[in-house]
Specification:
Elements (H helix, E strand, L loop, with lengths): L5 E5 L1 H18 L6 E6 L3 H8 L7 E7 L14 E3 L9 E9 L3 H11 L5 E9 L12 E5 L5 E2 L15 E4 L2
Parallel strand pairs: 2-3, 2-5, 5-6, 6-7
Antiparallel strand pairs: 1-9, 3-4, 8-9
The structure holds inosinic acid (IMP).
Amino acid sequence: MAKEALEVLLSAEQINEKIKELAAEITKDYHDKNPLLIGVLKGAVVFLSDLIREIDVPLEVDFMAVSSYGADTASSGIVRIQKDLDQSIKDKDVLIVEDIVDTGLTLNYLFENLGSRYPKSIKVVTLLDKPDRRKVKFEADYCGFKIPDRFVIGYGLDFNENYRNLKDICILNA
Ligand code: IMP
């Protein structure tokens, strides 16, 4: 991929600033709780690792992997668990950590699936939201940036498993 094909949408500085704001809100809302943060692999890994270091309450971390787009940039509409949690979430305050809400299918499924496991509470934080692409109604409790309907990469987000290591979030002009 040629370098010119990448256009910075959100800089590392903008992302860091937003993460501090989100973490402050989460710290306030969970000040008397011990939340379990569930990162959705692989895209949310970078966001989760920065976010947890800004949250000032005791917390736990676990991961889930669900099927994603594969080599295509269009949603398959099929959600499948590839890696489940290591623990029960019964009576826990669960916060799902996602990189981006696009069609809403993934989070809609995860919210229903985890919600049926008797958590005390369940909320969602997403760094990015592409509201124009929704196929099912879904609103995250905490959202970093609403972005236009463009395919983005970097800061954990990939195209064909590449670009996750970029510090900025960029638009991929294919
Ligand atoms: P949804 O189920 O359509 O909401 O998609 C959620 C998942 O699709 C995210 O966790 C990402 O892995 C992937 N995804 C959606 N949009 C993008 C994008 O613009 N760049 C990279 N991955 C994306």
